[in-house]
Specification:
- The complex is a heterotrimer.
- In chain A, 5% of the residues lie in helices and 36% in strands.
- Chain A has one helix at residues 21-27; strands at 13-19, 34-38, 54-56, 62-69, 76-82, 91-94, 101-106, 115-116, 118-123, 130-132, 136-138.
- The longest helix of chain A has 7 residues, at 21-27.
- Chain A is globular, with a radius of gyration of 16 Å.
- Chain B has a domain at 5-74 and 158-243: Immunoglobulin-like (Sandwich).
- Chain B is elongated and about 95 Å long.
- Classes of the chains: A mainly beta, B alpha/beta, C mainly beta.
- Chain C: It comes from Actinomadura violacea.
Amino acid sequence: MPSKAKPPESRPVTITAVIDPVAALASGALEGNLFLYDTNKAEGSAGFGGTDLRTRVRSGDRIIWNVVVLECETYAALDEIVIDEKVCTPERKVYPNTDIAYWTATVKRHVTEPVPYRLKFRLGTVTEPYAVSSPALVGQAGAGKEQR
Amino acid sequence: MAQQQGIIVLVDIANALRSRTLTGNVYLFDNMKFLGSTGQGTPDLVTICPGTYWSDGSQATEQVLNWLPASLGSIPPTVPRSYHADRAQATDQEALEEIAGVADRAGDPSVDTAAELEGLRRRVGARARRQRGGRAPAAPKVLDVTGNVVTGEGQAYNHPNPVITDITGPAVEEKIMYPAQYGSPDMVSDGWYWAASVDTSRPGTYRYTMHIQLHELVWRNGEPAWEPVDYTCDSAIKVISDPKRNAFTGAGLGVLPIP
Amino acid sequence: MKPHVNIVVLVDAVGALSDRTLNNGNLSLVDDGAFGSRGQGTTDLCTVVVPGQVVQWTAIAIDVQTTAEISAITFLPPDAAGGAGGAAAEEAPAGEAPGGGHENLDLKVWEGIVPAHLQPGVPYRYRLEVRMHEGRDSVLHIDTPALMCA
């Protein structure tokens, strides 16, 4: 009997930003054109599909942020993540031997109150970033029952 | 419209495999919200197909749909699909170069050659077997979600992208859309993608079913293998049709409004 | 004489939306007129026509997945030097548009007959307005192209 696949213990929590860059450029805003998801729904993350994602994390979790572009021929990338450094310090990395970036961080401490953070994106050839401040990391307790 | 419509099928693969269903684990998008698509980013996307016809009733512009599966929590689709093969080759190459170094040092009694070789074996990584009939990438190494090789059981690995194996349902049976799999030189779609042209002469909302294959890594006697798992998920297209009309007159051809 | 003249409006929508201008190489105009049009491949195309010919404008986005459509063509008064004097292009209210409340510019055929009253050798400039997707920054225009009678 083969051993069935078990979810590995150390799977990172991936936060994926789906973005419609052409719609965002045309409307001048990310709202309505940015959809945030994570892989921690089973742990109680909430707010999928909007800009106010609540990602449930534990101390020691590894987080990865990446981007999926609705129009694959249009450039869109995560430019910066601004978050309380006491909680985590996101770092920009690239997939080995590519110039495609992702951001990663390890949760340094137990999170009680939601920790909001700012995501800045670069779209098309615009030099000024487009930003949202509505997503947050939330802890195991006091994260509410807003599961959807 | 000359614009091609893209439908993104984003799958939470780990959660789908855990709950053994795509229900609640698929998010759908298209780039036609500005023409009336609804349900962006949810499982309930209805994709607008805005048809046009000439005054004699013939179809004016062709609507083309393209489906692009993507995986939540995997290496994103902007990383070329040849990436798995490229990384497998690169890690092999690095290991070969180091084997030469191990051989050079083999005569030195202070060097534990066996331990060095074991270290190399781990760095070369695991190569998953491919289930016959499955559509997993051909004998790739197992990578983690940041593109590094996985060396043993229990490590977080990158799921291969979901694969659409068929598109069926009322929209197809009633000959509203004509889906087929096409070859492409575009590495973003791994050389294959599903596309359909739409007959916009019969307005209405039509459902369709995507057949989606996921791949689960199963370890047998310490050897990993990709096992295909087949699921389905539904969506819909909304066909509308309006007549072409002259933009200057609102009706037929006229003289240009030059002052 | 060819009864039809086609003017193709080639748009780099992502470039135009990023730069917020149709200049900088984000738009180019080409026609197939038979009378030596000037400025082919630029934003300054002067299409040479004769009365009675039918002129048709067609927008093409260089990227197949993005959208660029002509939302207005407005001929400017003869003395409008800076181009701002032309009647502002009016968009159909969204509620009245066919297509379930979403205006589908693909329905519009930008085509018309060259009138008989044009003075030969005088360029009649027009404002060409292009819409890419929807929203605050989605509509851009140029005032530089023209029609001119041979």
